[in-house]
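Listing S7. Sequence submitted for prediction.
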Amino acid sequence: MKFVVACAAALGLVLAAAAGAQQPIVIKFSHVAAPDTPKGQAANEFKRLAEERTQGKVKVEVYPNSMLFKDAEELDALQLGSVQMLAPVPGKFGPVGLPEFEVFDLPYMFPDIDAVHKVYYGPVGASLMKRLESKGLVGLAFWDNGFRVMSANRPLHTPADMKGLKMRINSSKVNAAIMKSVGAVPQTMAFSEVYQALQTGVIDGTEGPLSNLYTQKQYEVQKHVTLTFHTISNYVVVVNKSFWDKLPADVRTTLEGAMKDATKLNDQVAEKDEAAAIAAIKASGRSEIYKPTAAEKEQWMKAMRPVQDEMASRVKKETLAAVRASVGATK
């Protein structure tokens, strides 16, 4: 009996009876960010709502800060059933045959967060979510994390200031192309390793959302932060399809509702945390925050925007065209 229960747990189907009572369904939710980031808070809110609304039928175990897996390993773990739920960045889906999710990484694709949401909740977002099923995944939600910024130990006022810098990126061909477009050298690295790499000089800088820059204390080892806001930082909440399909229909419906409300919290926190992170980093005196002038911002956009067409075949031309149509972009 112990062997059966152990195997079931590995698949996320902890449904065996014990002491005459049905055991809760366990959902292991693994992610790489800190608990106080928007993603971390939303994951904990999903746990609270799921357990409360199912009256204990579901137990959600949240594992933040790469406690179970580094970001390069987590999607494999989900497909194998070692965990049941993740919230990876769009670039993680490229290696499993869905590079079109990297359309969200394209530089200066979205003028504001409303344009991003228009894609999430429109035909493009629905189509992307549907494609996950062929990879044994079910897409539950898109989560915001603000727009991304650049940081380094030297001022970054224009793209020319990036030349030769070794810049950490997450796993995305699009993000690599962005760095190359401004003369930097992209370095793919696990999120959990970034602080030490910055501290020891293994990398010269990084790019990412302000909430991560602050909660991971990266600003302590970076003297300059530039508000380029060059691309959106977001996540796709996914669940193992085999696990999801075997859940009772009423439980799935309840979990979908919990995820919808957790998503609302995530997006509210993301907006507030961006402003709070800017204020906290300024107050620390450890890193200078720089907002490009209108002329400088135009230089950043001019340097990076060609990456959209450069990566068109990777993200699928029809996907790029659909996103441009949704946000009203012109070429």
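Caption to Listing S7: primary sequence and predicted structure tokens for the chain studied. Confidence is low (pLDDT under 50) at residues 1-8, 12-20. The longest strand covers residues 137-152.
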